[in-house]
Amino acid sequence: MRIFLRDNIDKFNTAKDHGYFFTKDHQLREEISIKLIGEVIDKKTKQPQRLLSIACSTGVIEEKIKNKLGLIVFGIDGAKKSLKIAHKRGIITKYGDVSKSLPFENKYFDFVFAGEIIEHIFDTRFFLEEINRILKNNGYLILSTPNLARLDDRLKFLLGKTPRQITPFHSYLYLHIRPFTFELLKKALLDSGFTNIEAKTNVIALNFFGKMIKIYSKLLTSFFPTFGTTLIIKAKKA
Hints:
single chain, Rossmann fold, globular, 9 strands, 7-stranded mixed beta sheet, alpha/beta
C-alpha cells in the first residue's frame, strides 16, 4: 500500500502545471465546481470564509477560487514541488498525506474542495468522515471524480468490453482504485454525514474503436449528469 501511495505522489509531484489542467474538459470541471461553491457562499457574514483543497497540486483552480470568490484558500498535498507553486499563487499550503487524518481542527472550514482525489483513496469512509469533521456545521463539500458509469462505458460493458476507469495498465488510470457511480458515491456521502447531494457533469463522451465524440451541450449535461465523464458533486454537512 505504501508503494502505491508513493506512486501517486511521484506521478504528480512536479514543479510545473500539468497539461490536462488546461484542457477544455478540465476547464469546464473547474468552472462548474467554482459555480457550485459560489452558490452557497454566505454573502451576509463579515467573517472570513475558509476553503480547504485536498490534493491541491500546483494550485491552479485554488487560485481561481481565491480570486473569484474571495475565500481564504488552504491547500494540502503530499507533493512538495507542486506545493511550492501553489504557495506562490497565494494558497496557504500544508504538506501531508491526504489519506490519513487531516491536520486541521474540528469545524475549521466553511468549504472543502476535493478534485479528482477520492478515486485514489483506499479508505473512502475515513476520508469522507475526516472531511465532515473539519467542516463547520452546514458547511459544504464539492468534489469531482471520474464516472464509472459514463455513457460509453455503459455501452461497452453491455458488449463485454472493459470500462475505461478500471483499465489496469493505463498510464495513470491504474492509480484509480475506487471508481464511483453516482449511486455509490451518494450512498458513501449519506453514510458519512452529508445531505442535499447534487450532481453535475462537464461533458458526455462516446469513445469507440479509437474515435471520440464529445457532447458539451449544457442542456444534455444538465438533464443527464450521471451519463457524463466526470461526477461533480455538491454535498452539505448534515
